[in-house]
Design a protein that fits this description.
- With 442 residues, the chain is α/β, with parallel strands linked by helices.
- The strands form four sheets. The chain has an eight-stranded mixed β-sheet with strand order 7-21-22-20-19-16-17-18, with helices on both faces. The protein has a six-stranded mixed β-sheet with strand order 1-5-6-4-3-2, with no helix packed on it. The protein has a six-stranded mixed β-sheet with strand order 9-8-10-11-12-13, with helices on one face.
- α1 crosses α10.
């Protein structure tokens, strides 16, 4: 016989918040069960409403502040903060957001990896608003509301939030969400546009419309005029990523961003991975170069190199650098970027860095410095398989503190490295996303 699920209280419940979870939610305990309360901060006495309950914990959302309002609490700048799921920490002082992320990184390093850095690096910080140069926006024609919605998902829901602007998106897009919604609503295929992908370069903003049906000539004309009016480069995507084409049918616009370090220009396609926050990326590249301490005789290995964001600036200083990436298309573009920047001492090749035959495919002889910039899944296969006995210094750029911690434990306990320093980089202000860097030395 199945156990009947206990009904959740209908009315709001009072509790006092004890701490913040890794996800930035207030943590409390009621009748021995852990409660996570969105929007609540440490020390506050709040009224919250249950949303769902699990066997070991429950989730709720803030209804009212009762007492002991935290001095770390600030008023959210965005008028849609209460409904939009794009941000979760706008109510927390930005300096405290940084401290929270730093604590998450250090706690994960200790709890998962059993290691701690000898030095904690000052956080890299940048703009708090209008920083997002990459995003994927949901699009939904809501029949009951007789309107089209464009934006991020709602909090606690898969529905598109009803917003008309976004404070963290680059202004070229964040300030015109209502205009975008009105544009789509006026198309014959208004219910066949699934999403809009945003890619902002140094000179233009590209929008990719995922169209599930063919546009009429009138639809194309309306999109074209909208792009001209707002100085946007528009693309259509009728199928998979390889079906992206410029709206005009001509050759796609040259999207690029410049790096101060090494005076590098990186060219990219609107669907390519590029860093969300360009100012933090500038500072991050400088920090990586600094901690690798590259000499003119060094041979450097850059794993998960992408378009050459780190590889090409490294090439300006090193004897040679090799970039390895799993996506063949990105490798080709990295090679093209090397040619464009007149760099001849950088080589690139394609390898699946999650596979079990890396030692046979990557010759480690001669490399004394290594950079890792893996996806959220981390670099466990690379670290476990490659012979790094000759590597004097390894810099690890991470977008997931849990996998960084796991990999750091292997590097320190099994591979003979010392975790010299680590710090966070605020790539995504007002979210719980933790970007970090760790420096390992022999």
């Amino acid at each position: 016989m199945s156990r009947r699920r206990k009904k959740l209280p209908v009315d709001p419940v009072e509790t006092t918040i004890e701490s913040l979870s890794h996800e930035g939610r207030g943590v409390s305990h009621i009748d021995g069960k852990t409660i996570f309360v969105d929007g609540a901060l440490t020390g506050e006495t709040v009224m919250f409403r249950y949303r769902r309950s699990h066997s070991r914990y429950a989730e709720g959302s803030l209804e009212e502040l009762i007492a002991n309002v935290s001095s770390d609490r600030v008023e959210a700048k965005c008028k849609h903060f209460s409904i939009c799921g794009g941000c979760s920490l706008q109510h927390l002082n930005p300096d405290k957001q940084i401290k929270h992320k730093e604590n998450v990184m250090l706690e994960q390093l200790q709890h998962i990896g059993g290691v701690q850095p000898a030095e904690i690096l000052p956080a890299l910080t940048g703009p708090l608003w209008g920083y997002r140069h990459k995003a994927r926006l949901g699009v939904k024609h809501v029949i009951k509301k007789e309107k089209v919605l464009v934006g991020f998902r709602e909090k606690y829901s898969s529905y598109v939030a009803e917003i008309d602007s976004c404070e963290v998106l680059h202004p070229s897009v964040g300030k015109i969400l209502d205009s975008l919604a009105a544009l789509i609503a006026d198309l014959t295929v208004h219910n066949k546009i699934a999403q809009i992908e945003v890619a902002v370069s140094d000179h233009t903003t590209a929008l990719i419309f995922r169209n599930l049906a063919e546009l009429s000539s009138e639809d194309v004309k309306k999109l074209y005029m909208f792009g001209n009016d707002h100085q946007l480069s528009l693309y259509l995507q009728p199928g998979g990523p390889d079906t992206v084409v410029p709206l005009s049918g001509d050759k796609q616009d040259d999207l690029f961003y410049k790096l101060d370090e090494g005076n590098i220009t990186i060219h990219f396609a609107p669907t390519d991975f590029t860093q969300v926050n360009v100012e933090i990326n500038q500072k991050m590249v400088k920090r990586v170069i600094n901690f690798l301490d590259i000499k003119s005789e060094d041979k450097v290995l850059d794993l998960f190199c992408g378009l050459g964001n780190f590889t090409l600036p490294i090439a300006r200083r090193a004897k040679s650098v090799t970039g390895v990436e799993g996506a063949d298309e990105l490798v080709k573009k990295a090679q093209q970027n090397a040619i464009f920047n007149n760099i001849s001492n950088a080589t690139f090749f394609t390898r699946d860095l999650s596979q079990a035959d890396l030692q046979e495919n990557i010759n480690m002889e001669g490399y004394d410095k290594v950079l890792l910039d893996p996806p959220r899944s981390g670099a466990q296969a690379v670290i476990e398989q490659l012979n790094m006995e000759n590597v004097k210094k390894l810099v690890y750029v991470s977008c997931n503190p849990a996998t960084l911690a796991r990999d750091a434990g292997i590097l320190v306990k099994e591979k003979g490295f010392k975790l010299q320093s680590a710090g966070v980089m605020d790539m995504f202000p007002h979210t719980t996303h933790v970007e970090s860097i760790a420096i390992f030395e022999r």
